[in-house]
Input
Amino acid sequence: MEERSNRNSREAIFASIRGALDASRTLDARESELHHSPEGEGTLPSVVKYDDVSLVELFKESLEAVDGHCIVVENRADVVQALYEIINRLQGTYLKAKRIAISDSPEIERLVNLVDADVDSFAIAPSASEVFNFDVGISAAQAGIAETGTLVLDSSRERNRLVSLVPPVHIAILNASDIVQTLGEALSRLRQSEEVSPIVTLVTGPSRTADIELTLAIGVHGPQELYVIVNNDRK
Output
């Protein structure tokens, strides 16, 4: 009796696999048509080009689609102004934004020091035990992926992991020239660096999770709010 039950279970599993494979044939054919050249097999997938939208615009659209906030500015002074406006706005909410933690990037420190905001405490790359005491973490991002609105944070370039993942709000500053189209392009850039990073963090929107009932919760395992300031300065 048990053997028959096991046999029936195996047949049900195999039938499910066969059905999934049959259903995927149409998608496989479509993927091959879209991403492979007609000359023959073995060619690499081509990159889809977005002629009607710039990488900055695509990044902004993708980030906002996952509930992130994106502010595109034109120069360094505008970055400082955007930081001030974000912090000032947050101070009127339950998120407070009175305690600010930043990465150890000298440029981030210079920018934040120019922000004329009323804060209670300020720290550079606080320790793991201290970082939980801060409302906002500010860091740079080493790359942005336009297709998904993803930030790439490279730990070999700055100590950004804790300030980007622990405080309720993360503000990232990204140069427009560092936005690429795909994850593959972003990883290729990292491989060209002289130092191989031990940790690369990919951030796509605020932290989110869903329980077994599919109830979405924001900020359970990381920031509740993500702001990205894209500096479009080409100088």
Observations:
- DSSP finds six helices and twelve strands in the chain.
